[in-house]
């Protein structure tokens, strides 16, 4: 059974940093690309960053380029999102996503990130 478990969210002041983690199980993690999405209140879920199976290529939404870094550890079956210079508009629930499981689309339960002074 595919499981994706996010952690690392919390309350941080503007300009601060957080590192999110996504622990994966139930599939061969190293074989699949992975993605981070976020959803702010009243808004649609949006793609934040993605990484290839081997970690050699990454892509970011324009809104987070230069501030966020996606990475993965294929030994620990874990994906990360390092978020620096956080802004209030980064406030959202952050989800990890993998193209596996039902409809080749699995989600974690999400972790809340709140950027506020």
Q: Could you walk me through the main structural features you see in this protein, from its secondary elements to its overall organization?
A:
By secondary structure, this protein is mainly beta. It is built from no helices and eleven strands. It has strands spanning 3-7, 10-12, 18-25, 34-39, 46-51, 58-60, 68-73, 78-83, 92-98, 106-107, 111-115. Strands 2, 4, 5, 6, 9, 10 and 11 form a seven-stranded mixed β-sheet that branches. The protein is globular, with a radius of gyration of 13 Å. The chain starts with a strand and ends with a strand. 30% of the residues are buried. The model has no long low-confidence stretch (mean pLDDT 97).
Based on CA inertia axes, which overall geometry fits?
Answer: globular
Overall mean pLDDT score?
Answer: 97
Q: What share of residues is helical? A: under 10%
Largest sheet, in brief, is: 7 strands, mixed
Low-confidence segments = none
Compressed to H and E, one letter per element, the order equals EEEEEEEEEEE
- Alpha carbon gap, first and last residue: 40 Å
Total DSSP E strands: 11
Q: What fraction of residues sit in β-strands?
A: over 45%
Our Rg estimate from Cα atoms comes to: 13 Å
Q: How many helical stretches?
A: 0
Structural class from helices and strands? mainly beta
């Amino acid at each position: 059974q595919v499981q994706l478990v996010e952690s690392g969210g919390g309350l941080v002041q503007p300009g601060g940093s957080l590192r999110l983690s996504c622990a994966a199980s139930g599939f061969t993690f190293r074989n699949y690309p992975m993605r981070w999405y976020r959803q702010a209140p009243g808004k649609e879920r949006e793609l934040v960053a993605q990484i290839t199976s081997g970690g050699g290529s990454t892509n970011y939404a324009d809104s987070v380029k230069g501030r966020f870094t996606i990475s993965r550890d294929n030994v620990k079956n874990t994906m990360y999102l390092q978020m620096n210079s956080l802004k209030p508009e980064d406030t959202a629930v952050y989800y990890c996503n993998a193209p596996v499981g039902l409809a080749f689309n699995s989600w974690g339960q999400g972790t809340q990130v709140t950027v506020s002074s």
